[in-house]
Design brief:
Shape: elongated
Mean pLDDT: 74
Strand content: 25-35%
Radius of gyration: 19 Å
Number of strands: 16
Length: 230
Amino acid sequence: ADGGSDFATTASAAKSNSNLESTNQPSINSTELGSNSSAREAEAISNATSTTSSVLVQSIEEEPSQMEWQVVAQGQVHIRLAKRPSAAVSGYVPKGGIFLGTRKGNWIELFRRTGFLMVVKSGIVRVLQRPTSYSWLPQGSMSCKKYGKFPIRDASVCEAAAVTLGLASTRTRPGQQLPTPEAGCYSDSHGVLWYFSGPSSNTSMHTKRHSLRPLCASRSYLAAHDLAEG
């Protein structure tokens, strides 16, 4: 999406990031699931309507996200180290890529890492906000799907959800043991934010399971893998 002149201007940055460019891999390799995503979202909503009323009446804390963005421009959008079109490039996001950040004027500042993406260039909109909301389920609820939601299976999105929901802890700890039937993002009774990369069938962890509260998303997505420096 950036012109050739940008590559010339940022030659030194490109050289310093040769490992990234030599593999020709995106800085944030994340794409919407497309028609499959829509089908799964519809299925989840359908499942939610059939859930017993005793589950649905429980309190769910939910807030809209202002942090999720998606590249809509053809090609790719560069991640720059400053809010200038000529600033050094540290990576890029491909079309369809989902990333986290906060809008500041015509730029998106990446969430908890150094980098900026230009929203509009030469009259072309390159990035749009992705309508999403995050939910914090009641204690003892162990499945986002039962509420028509999707588990958060990326640590960065887990932290963004915690910030959005106003949780006291917004830095994830990786779970060494997996006391959950569903991989994802959880907060425990002590306010600690956990990210579990896989489920467990260990029934001895039953008590600990009920001290956890899942954080869920209203939409599905592939995990965003940040390969850029910064």
